[in-house]
TrEMBL record:
Family to which this protein belongs: Belongs to the CobS family.
Lineage, top ranks: Bacteria, Pseudomonadati, Thermodesulfobacteriota, Desulfuromonadia, Desulfuromonadales
Enzymatic class: transferase
Keywords, comma-separated and alphabetical: Cell membrane, Cobalamin biosynthesis, Magnesium, Membrane, Transferase, Transmembrane, Transmembrane helix
EC numbers on record: 2.7.8.26
GO cellular component entries: plasma membrane
GO BP term (any one): cobalamin biosynthetic process
Pfam families recorded: CobS (PF02654)
NCBIfam families per UniProt: cobS
Designated name of the protein: Adenosylcobinamide-GDP ribazoletransferase
Amino acid sequence: MKRLWEEFRIAGGFLTVFPVADDLSGDPERLGRSMAFWPAIGLLMGLGLVAMDQALTSLIPRAVVDSLLVLTMIAITGAIHLDGIADLSDGLARGKDREGVLRIMKESRVGAIGVISLVMVLLLKYVILHNVPVQLKTQVLIFMPMAGRWTQVLLAAFNNCIRSGTRAGGEFVDYVGKREFFIASATFAVATLVLFALQGLVVLLIFGLVGVLLLRYFQHRLGGVTGDVLGAGNEVMEIFALLLIHLLRHA
């Protein structure tokens, strides 16, 4: 139990700006094993967003609340995943082959495509979140960050690490396996079923299929993942999570 608690803390310390694991060693092996608890950290993030939403909704306009919710997620994570979407977008747009993509991703300069991607990601999150029906707001705020972090576990568990030299460039991916994926998936599945009841089965099926498609794409295009790829996957699938709930509402 002590080891599991430490892995949970390491997950929280890596995914957020909170100093919850400063006394623990975050070596690649322990960081990789901590991915078992990444969806659980996403769940806690979601609960925090729900509390914030409920506290502010009666005080300020909903549009302002939704803007603050998006900004809060950026502040909590230290924009770690947004950095990934910018770097990956630049690499995929300008790189002609795998080596070219990885080389561009390592550059410190953010290109025009990266900036546009950042703007569109934030804009889409805000617009979709703002249009979420009030009766679904709680479920969506919890599901979105949890789903994004489950995606990262999926990508890490079934991909190779690309030794590209990026910061947190996936050196921990080699230590993510079936155990981490099973624990993460169990957390994600149970929480989704609690949030959406029987419709949660449809949510899990569709989200899982899209996640596998994303996994196959990175395997084919890059031959594996880096930290930037994991971060980008989180952002893409958070947006898809928001869209999915909207689509199912009208089904």
